[in-house]
Each structure stands twice: as structure tokens, then as C-alpha cells.
Amino acid sequence: MTRFFYPSLAVVAVTVMSLLPLTLDPQGYEIRILCIAMLFAALGQAWNIVGGLANQISLGHAAYFGIGAYTSTILLRLFSLSPWLGGILGMVLAVLFALLLSVPTVRLKGHYFALATLGAGEAMRVIANSWASVTGGPVGISVPYSRESSLWMMQFPTVLPNYYLFLIALVIICLVFWKIQTGALGFRLRAIKENEQAAEVIGVDTYRAKLIASTVSAAITAFMGTLYAQFQFFFDPDTVFGVATISVKMALIAILGGVGTLLGPLLGAAFIIPMEEFANSYFGASVAGLSQFAYGVILVVIILINPRGLVALIGQIKNRIFSKGGSQ
Amino acid sequence: MKRSKLSTSVAALTRRSVLATGAAALAMPALTGRGFAQEAVNVGVIVPLSGANAQFGINSRNGIQLVADEINANGGIKSMGGAQINLVIADATSNPTQAATVAQRMMSQDNVVAVLGAFASSLTLAISEVTERRGVPLLTMSFSDQITDRGFQNVFQIVSPGSQIGAATFDFTRALAQEAGQTLEKIAIMYEDTAYGTSQSAGLRKAAQDAGIEVVMDEAYPLGITDVSPLINQLRRSDAQVVFPVSYLNDSLLIVRSMRQQGINIPTIGGAAGYIIPDFREGLGDLADNVLSISPAAYDQAPDYTERFREKFGYFMVHEAQEHAACMGCLHSALEAAGSADHAAIREQLQNSVFDQGWATVMSGGKVEFDEMGRNIHASPLMVQWRGGELVTVYPKEYATGEVVWNS
Q: Which residue ranges does the record assign to the Leucine-binding protein domain (chain B) (predicted)?
């Protein structure tokens, strides 16, 4: 394959994704599913920077996501501040939170790191639930509904502009991931993944590498939180700070797709989100609960077949086809 | 469509067959006494059918199903040529994002005339963001104030808003105490440490403070608590005159049982949810007797209607089923008056009619009328009390069907 194959594949994919919504109902169901899939692909990719490259399995990324969602929405409600500015402020707060969190967690490894981050996410959920005067408390918070269309205020009459915002965000995040992966930081992070002590011995500043990776990841996750809030218009602490709804799902999408790869979160989200939807729409009414069951079974099966996820699975299938074809 | 399988109506009509029938009807008007059957009217029902609220979602669905079946058996929507009601039922799960997606699906794929649901306020709020933007009417029995204080045009709340229910819980209790010759001075609140428990208890606490009454015990406990004896001991020591345990079913069973076993018989006032479902009585037996609870509606207010539910499903008509049935009743009248499946026309009818026919009458006051905010101006919370497996309305006086038993 030539070295132009993957870039041209990316260009084709982006072009298709840009033209696709024009064929759909701009307020419809399909476009909403695509938006959610892109949201989670972007979140999976953000998680992939720390979870994938450095193998720092975080189960607390909902903390950043919720900070982004709440910061922009609260500022919008109180001061009619544009969600773009609110989103940037949310990123700043998320980075500060990531720095704060890194003080006690950066030396932790494996399960201990996962548990510590899990706790951080839960702490944010409790705060959002109890600090009702600011966050609206357990009932949740709504983005004020404006009937005027405005890009500055991220208010649109249809979902189509949201779709393009998600698409642009996803493309940027993939580029960031690719840049990190192929750059010096990516090598440092992979060195940490392989053997942290050895990495330190050969002169990698592991603390700094992990810190940069986690702040970038936190900032991206927070901005996606803002985009989500402006797309969903209503959320509560249990949703945006949820373990199952955000933290684990982000990790799951990256892991199922192929951890540490550029394509992984994209494949993971493209698979998981439509499947969840399909399961809910076909079993939701008749045998409620079966949808989650079926979904769980499929995930287990995929991970059993190939623990390295869909990317590896596709590679495996490709190899089999090529070897059967008698190449070499 | 697979989702629609649960519905009982004749949904098998295709567009073509309807057109054909329509053409035939036009061709021979003299031969036909009345119009032919029209295309079915799709009504969206989004309730939690899985997860922690599944039982409440199933009750809600049963209530709506009962009304829809009755309408269909009585010849459908008459102003629309006898069109049948086809319920499109979907699982809201317990995730607001998912609930909004389900609403979107119903509107674009099933072309629903209106949406009913979704029991939990967070789900309803998420759905309302979608229905409002597409101008589809949403009828709900979720009681969060936020549902109707955002200035939305297309959301109709059939029960009193939560702040009123919260205040009524406290005010009714005080009034009942007074009638029993007791001046309320000390109350106890215990609540589960969840979104539901925290917000309900906050309302109670505020009402008590406003009334200048001392909260001598104010304890949160983790959901799914296994040993409640420390709580009960604290309650005993607190010398409270009444106790408000805010909890769902399992914890409420444990708390009430332990209290009664330890001989604490002070009036116990639950906050709807787990306190007014048949499972509460089944779990506690006679210990359930005389436990009070606030309820946004009560089946003893309209036995002519609610007994049909008991006949069909084998248990009394729980409040969420009753309120959802009333929503369906209002929608039925609105459809009859509008004579079309047009969202704006239906909304117009919902906004401007007085619903005093059919299932709408099961709500307090025997009628439903929505103000500008979409709130039912006739709705009133009720205080109910367990009496031998049945719930009896004991307050306010104009709705009461029995006398309160204060100290049990």
C-alpha cells in the first residue's frame, strides 16, 4: 500500500460524513444517532490519549465531561455568555482539575489509578447533586431555549449545524491524537506503557509526559461536554458525571475498537452506538432489558475473540483472506 | 413495525389500502351510511420499562393501554372517521439522552400525534426539549417544576408541580395533627442519599423552617441500607411527633417494619413513590395499616373508572397509571375536537379546552384544564392512608373518602 492510502481514506471518510446528513431529515432520528456516535467517537479518542497510549486506565473522565457541560450551561444561564467562551472556560477548569487530580494519582498504577479516577468522577457527581443553588441539583439543568438561530450562542433550529460541529470536533481531535501518537510525546507515552521504570532510566520525564497527556485529554473531554449540553439541552448530574453513561462508555469504546490506535475509537463508536440504538428500538418495548443483555453479550464475545478490539479483529480477518488468496 | 406489536389496534392498514378505501368512499357516498375506517392515529408512549423504575413504567403503560383499548372498542376517534389509536410504546431506560433519542425516533419514524410519558422527571425534561422543538404535544405526570417553568408551549403537566406537592405534604400533615388535637413542634426526616431523596427532603425541610417547626432529626442514609436500627434508635431518642421517611420501596419496607416492631407508632408520612403501590402492603402486611402518604392522585376519587383497571390487571389503579390514563383521556378529547392529526391543532385544543369527560375526570376536581404554563389548574395533591390493603383519601376534606387515623 502506498503512503497515500490512509490519508486519502481519511479524506474520503470526511467527505462522505460531510455529505451524508444532506440526504437525511435535518431534525430526524438518523442524524441524531450520527451526532451521538461522533460525540462518543471523540470522547473515546480523548480517552485514548491517556488510556490507550500510556495505558493509564481512567474511569473518571466523566468529571471533565461534566465540568465542560456544567460550566458553559451555568454561565449561559447566569450571564448569557456564549457557549464558545463558556466551553473554553470549561476546558480551563477541566485542566485545573486534571492537574489537581494528578498530584495524588500520577504515581498510581493499574487498578489503583482506575479506582482513584473513578472516585474523582463520583466526587464531582455528588458535588453537582448537592450544590443545588448553582447546578440546579439532582433535578438537572436546562439550556435556555431560544427560538432564534445563532452560531455564537450555539442555538440552531435543526440538528444539522450540531452535526457539523461534532464532525469538525471529531476531525480535530483525531488530528491531535495522530500528532501525539506519531510525535515524541507518543513515544514517551508508549515507553511508559511498556515499562515505566525503564522509561525513566533512559531519561523520559514520565511525570511530565503523563501530565501533558492527561491535561490535553481533559480539555478535549470538557469541550465535548459543552457541545453535548448544547445538543441535548437538558442534563442532570447522574448523566454527565455518570460512571456507566460516560466514564466507562468512553473507555469501552476505545477498548472495544482497539486501544491506542487512531481508528479504534472511531470503529468502537460506529459499532456500539448504533447497536445500542438498534437493541433499544427492537426489544425496548416487548422485552425491555433484553436490549442491555444482548448488548453485553456481544461486547463479551468480541473481547473474547480478540482482546485488542475491532481494529485487531479486522486485521485478523484481512490476514486470513490474504493468506487464503495464496499471496506470497 | 416491530415496536408497535404491543398495541392492540388495527395497525395493519397500509397507506395504499387507506387510499383505496378513501377513493371507494368518495365514489359511492350514497351507499355508505358513515365514513370508512381511517389510518390509525399513532400516540407515542415513552416510559421506563427497564432499570430501577421499570415497575412504575409498566404501571403507566397499563393505564394508557386501558384507555386506548376502550377508545378503540368504542369506535375510535369519531371526528376522524373512527380512526383507531395505535400506541407506539418504547423503553425510556433510565438515561435522559436515550429518552430524548427515543422521542426523536418516534417523531420522525412513527409520526406520532403526541407523546405521553415519561414518569421520571429527568427523562421527561430531556424528551420535552425534543418535542418542543418539533411542536409535538407532550402530556406528562412527572411533577418537577422545571418541566413547566421554562415557557414551553407544547408540554402539559397533569399533576401539581413538585414544589406544591412538597409543601402540601407538610401542610396537610400539620392540619391533620391539628384536627387530632396535636400541635406539631418536632418532626423527623430521613431520606435516601439519591437525587430523589435529596430533592424531596429539601422541600420538606424548607416547609418546616418556613412554618417555624423544629426538625429534630435530619438524616441521610445510603440507598439499599441493610441495617436501619441506628436510624430507628435515633428516631426514638429524637422525640419527634411525626416522621417523614423519603425512600423507594425496599428501604421504606425496612424502615416501617423496624419502627413498628420497636413500638414506635408515631404517624409516618411517605412521599408517594414506593409508599402507595400494592407491593408496599404485600411487603408489610398489616404493619402497612395507617401509614400516610402524599399522592398526586388517588383511585378512590373516581371508582367508576379506576375499578376497570383493577378488573383488567388485578391490582388497584396506582397513581401513575391513573394520571397517565387521564393524560390519554385529555388527548382523546383533544383529538375529537381537533378532528385532525395536526400537531398545532391538537396543541390548540389541549391549551384551550376544559376536559370534563371520560378519563380526564379521574383527576381531582373531576376535570383538567391547562393554564398558559401548561399546568393543570384543578390538580390538587391528596393525603392517602393505608387501610386494609386499600388506600383511602383522608385530606383535603373536600376529597376525603374516610377519616384519618392519626396515631396508629
A: 41-382
